[in-house]
Write a structure and sequence with these properties.
Blueprint lengths: L2 H14 L8 E2 L1 H8 L3 H13 L3 E4 L3 E4 L4 H24 L3 H19 L3 H16 L5 H21 L12 H9 L3 H18 L12 H6 L3
Antiparallel strand pairs: 1-3, 2-3
Helix pairs in contact: 1-3, 1-6, 2-3, 4-7, 4-9, 5-6, 5-8, 6-7, 8-9
Length: 223
Amino acid sequence: MSNDEKIYRKMLKAIVEHQLPPGERLPEDKLSEAFGVSRTGIRKVLQRLAIERFVVIQPNKGAQVNRPSRQEAEEVLESRIMLEPLLLPDVIDNWQPRCLDHFVTMVEEEKRADREGDLASSIHLTAKFHYELAKLGNNSVLAEFIEQLCYRSSLVIAAYGTRESVSCDCGDHHALLELIDNGKIEQAQHWMTHHLKQIKASISLRGKRDDHIDFQKLFSGME
């Protein structure tokens, strides 16, 4: 694993586990000192996190942890509730036996991350399950849009959700795969709608924490 990848994972973990709360500034000089790398290396990681919408970079202001508004959070999740069930008939039409093995493996990875308390991986794996499923439909434009919504909802969950937001409390993906594999379109659409509504219900927006962040202490002890 490259050094950039290690730094990326540590920072993502800190954001997801609320050690770096929404709105927290991310000074390149302090992060460079904490990780023992150049500011150029830190900048590359921050740019990657910005592409995934976990970080916002503003000219002359630097980077900070993205803070979705209540309206944005609700609109992102409502958009998924409206759109993802619509793709399921095409997903089922394009479903192949090999698809089941692929997605079952993904669900097992989700469960392993949940058992190990790895919230960052759980959020990423859950989003990946949804957007890879959407790509099986015939509408590539809509599938790409859903992929972006999944990234944005990952941020919402990371910032304001709980472990319940990505756990079986919101529905076990195995159940959806069984419905899809058996060609049960209406039941699969109902399951997906209920699943996404449960995720939305698990979100609780909170105010910004005012603690001072000691980057050296925070990242020196992270694996």
